[in-house]
Amino acid sequence: MSGHAGFARGRLLTVVLALLGVQLAWFVAPAYACGCGAMVPDGQHNVYVNRESSVVRWDGGEEQIVMSLTVAGDSPEAAWIMPVPNRATVRLGDRALFDQLGDATAPEYREREYFWPRSGDWPFDIMESDGASGGAPRAGAPSVDVVGRERLGPFDVARLTATDSGALGDWLDDNGFELPDRLDRALRPYVEQDWEYVAIRLAPEESASGSALGGTLDPLHLTFRSDEPVYPMRLSKLATTPQSLGLYVLAEHRMEPRSAIGGDEPEVTYAGRVTAPTGALAELTDGGTDFLTALDQNFPEPSLISGDHELRRTATDAAYRKVIYMDDMATLGGVPVWLISVGGGLALLAIKAVAVTIVLRRNSRKTPPLPPIQPMPPYGHPVQQYAPPPQQPVPPTQPPGPIG
Q1: Cys staple from 165: which of 148, 187, 216, 284, with CB 3.0 to 4.6 Å?
Q2: Containing domain of residue 172, as a range?
Q3: Is residue 345 part of a domain?
Q4: Residues 6+ apart with CB under 8 A from 387
């Protein structure tokens, strides 16, 4: 017995240590990719993106992308690289924008009753209680060119052009960051397409004391020329864990991705015109871009991501809002209707049974007993013939007497 117990404890310890090792490796691994762009920590620390919310606004010639990143890790600062098809301008976004979009696309809740009890309802709860591209580079142009640099709140923003992906590594090295080889290779298709880059040093003031970079950062708002709406996703193939994308698209009509680019089929969670927008949402819907499409997509295997999301108009501008049903058991006066129905039916059957029993007993008292059954005579014995009783003689009739 003791040998079996020791073997079981040894197996349990091995499983626990393996799980701890997997979780620790996932936690300390730097996330070089998020849904849009790449996050690069310094050489001694790690950072990863918990959540990314993005908005794409396209009016037919100009595109705007607003991103809000929620990050965590032990790095006091990091760099973030975003490829764009043309020269971009960058400014801080409005935090309230994502609250407004969340309210506009919130699902509709409807109540729905059901009759029979389900798992978790009595009496089952008792049993379950166990528990677009830019121009070509100039001849003789340097491999990297800083076309703009500014300070936006806590962010140091540099706008770069590069004729080779290694030039981006030079900029990162000069600013205290190391470009991983995998990211260098992933950036080459953008270099071949003559895209430009927005490189941002994320160093919020509150992390100046050495505290880790974390929480939801101020949104960044990029604007650039684009003949076709595009959302960069190619760098997300570097991720080692499943990725998810939540994307809001504002345009003149309802939009959709041209393909799944290696992920699950995108799910539309909302589609419709924005009515009476205010604040930052009103700014993005001005000029006819008031049709809002909200998309969710999962990437179980990021290595299969084949490119960027190219967006196109759908065949129709059909409106859609997700409906979430709140199922409640039908009750009457706090008592489940099924229990009332079943109890009433059983009571009715009991009443009928009692009534039938009473009637049968009463009838048994009124009915005279049946005559006893005469036994059959034995075989060969003559059967006694029935003889009627003898009749009494009828007296003779007297003749009538004389009249008078």
Answers
A1: 187
A2: 29-321
A3: no
A4: none
Q: How far apart are CA 37 and CA 259, in angstroms?
A: 19
Q: How far is the C-alpha of 170 from the C-alpha of 144, rounded, in Å?
A: 9
Look at residues 40, 113, 9, 73 and name the one whose alpha carbon lies nearest to residue 327.
113
CB 302 within 8 A of CB 242: yes
At 121 the pLDDT is 65
Beta carbons of 64 and 246 less than 8 angstroms apart: no
Between 306 and 240, residue with greater pLDDT = 306
How many CA atoms does the CB half-sphere of 280 hold within 13 Å?
A: 18
In the numeric block, the tokens 């993106």 are attached to 49
Cβ atoms of 229 and 274 closer than 8 Å: no
Mention every residue, 6+ apart, whose C-beta is less than 8 A from residue 349: none
- Answering whether pTM is above 0.70, one says no
The Cα 146–Cα 149 span in angstroms is 7
Q: Residue 11: what residue type? A: R
Distances (CA, A) of 208 to 41, 211, 240, 270: 15, 7, 30, 40
Backbone dihedral angles phi then psi of residue 356, each to the nearest 5 degrees = -65, -40
> Do 318 and 254 contact (CB within 8 A), yes or no?
yes
Range 378-386 contact pairs with CB under 8 angstroms and sequence separation of 24 or more: none
For residue 77, being part of any structural domain is answered with yes
* Residue 392 counted as domain residue: no
Query: C-alpha angle with apex 307: 52 to 254, nearest 5 degrees?
Result: 65
Dihedral, CA of residue 21, residue 24, residue 28 and residue 31, to nearest 10: 90
Distances (CA, A) of 138 to 134, 135, 161: 12, 9, 11
Question: Residue for token digits 């290696």?
Answer: 262
DSSP string, 109-174: EEEEEESS--TTSTTHHHHT------PPPPTT--SEEEEEEEEETTEEEEEEEESSHHHHHHHHHH
Tens-digit pLDDT profile for residues 312-348: 999 999 999 988 876 777 777 767 777 777 766 676 7
In a domain, residue 401? The reply is no
**Integer Cα distance of 388 and 384 in angstroms:** 12
State how far Cα 166 lies from the chain centre.
39
Domain count, the chain: 1
| Whole-Å CA distances, 68 to 36, 218, 266, 269, 337 | 11, 7, 20, 19, 49
